[in-house]
Amino acid sequence: MFFSKKIFLFSLIALLIFIFIVCFIILINIYIRGASSPFWIKLENIIPFPVASVNGSWISFAHFWKYWQIANLPDLPSDFPFLNLDPETKKAHVLQTLIENKIIRKTAKIENLEATKQEINRQLEKEFVGKNKEERAKTIQEVLKISEEDYIRYILIPSLTKQKFYQARIAPQSFDIWMKNKLKASKIRIFLFSFSWDKNTASIITK
Fold it and tell me: Residue 72: which domain range?
């Protein structure tokens, strides 16, 4: 009986050590190395590891990586942000955009400025004239290499919501001032070791 308890205790300790090592490897790969292999991407889609938080609301690594992939696609709309930046600077701008989008979407919900289904459908019909849903999805997949769902979530909805914010605040200049004040008033934390948050801006830490 004594030996059984001892073996159980050793097994439990060994299991905990193993779990600790696995977690350590995961954290190193995600938060320091910025893991992007298919295995890690699948894992990050299952477990929502945060890259940042905005007033306690997380931005997941999977969300960050998906937007980063989209930001590097060819044939993006001309108004898509940071098209001509170098890769490292673009990563910081991707994170900055996700932080700002988080603030915009929360405020849009409160102020009833969210993009409606009708507005989304009208914009899709405008952009893909004469195409049905299947043809539209095929075109998006062929041109942008992403699904229609991702196109709507990462490109169309943020664009429509920002347009409504511009209209509500008269001009982009007033929107920029509003965003600056919102960022200043928000509690923002970045968990990726290669990034910093300073003066309301996400930036890459240079060695």
Answer: 34-204
Is 92 among the domain residues?
yes
Structural domains in the chain (count): 1
The verdict on residue 91 lying in a domain is yes
Domain harbouring 173, CATH code: 1.10.4030
> Is the CB of residue 61 less than 8 Å from the CB of residue 44?
yes
CA–CA gap between residue 163 and residue 149 (Å, rounded): 20
Q: Classify residue 60 by its DSSP letter.
A: E
Q: What is the pLDDT of residues 74-122, one digit of tens each?
A: 666 555 666 566 777 788 888 888 998 889 888 888 888 888 999 999 9
Q: Which segments of the chain does DSSP mark as H helices, in order?
A: 2-27, 38-46, 61-71, 87-110, 117-127, 133-144, 148-151, 157-168, 172-185
Q: Please choose, from the candidates 81, 100, 104, the residue with its C-alpha nearest in 3D space to the C-alpha of residue 197.
A: 100
C-alpha to C-alpha distance for 139 and 37, rounded to whole angstroms: 27
Q: Is residue 146 domain-resident?
A: yes
Q: Please tell me the distance from the alpha carbon of residue 141 to that of residue 28, in angstroms, as a whole number.
A: 33
pLDDT, tens digit (0-9, with 9 covering 90-100), for 160-186: 888 887 777 656 567 788 888 889 999
